[in-house]
Specification:
Number of strands: 12
Family: Belongs to the metallophosphoesterase superfamily. YfcE family.
Protein name: Calcineurin-like phosphoesterase family protein
Structural class: alpha/beta
CATH superfamily: Metallo-dependent phosphatases
Shape: globular
CATH topology: Purple Acid Phosphatase, chain A, domain 2
CATH architecture: 4-Layer Sandwich
GO molecular function, one term: phosphatase activity
Largest sheet: 6 strands, mixed
Pfam families: Metallophos_2 (PF12850)
Length: about 250
Amino acid sequence: MLLAVLSDIHGNRQAFEACLKVARARGAERFILLGDFVGYGADPEWVVDTAMELVAQGAVAVRGNHDQAVNSSSETMNAEAQIAIEWTRGRLDAAQRRFLADLPMLVEDSDHLFVHSEASSPQRWHYVRSTVDAAKSLIATPAHVTFCGHIHRPALYSMSVTAKMTSLVPKTDVAVPLLRGRQWLAVLGAVGQPRDGDPSAAFVLFDTVSCQITYCRVPYDIETAASRIRENGLPPWLADRLSQGR
């Protein structure tokens, strides 16, 4: 089965639509959504409704820290993120908020694990910034491949049976075989707010038969997404950063 794995949509309808269209055109048979459906962007209602429809059709979805913040005042964020969350709370209806609240922290499916942040303490929202961080996540699960988001920058880590770690920054549209005998941690870039210097939306395709992963980038209508943020009175930096990919 060909999985399309997406993370950190952040209320960006234009980016989400573009990724779904490309994933379907490339043969994706099932969608995996790794959280942060809301926050920053100006179309949280549409994004959550679309996620709900995908889950009803068999997609897997997990909770991100921004999703949790919608229903919990205990989540602490920077000032601009907090403004966006408070605005988002006023936009979502009860069913949409309940969907976010009921999402699991992680999902184990066959030999794969799906989580927003990382597997050792998913509720603490740690970032995977290094091989040390990646090792903690990999040690916490027997899964052959773990998929996570949260940091908005793509990376791929692996650990051998002797706990030797390797890492690489994956190239766009180059399939990488995830060999047996190693554990793998695929860190996705962001759909709705990339931070690796490339403003194109990011997601991955994963073939469960060949065990190959392909990191994908998708151009989208950034100007419309940015205009929507400005029109709704959200912090201007949330709009400006979209074109900068940071």
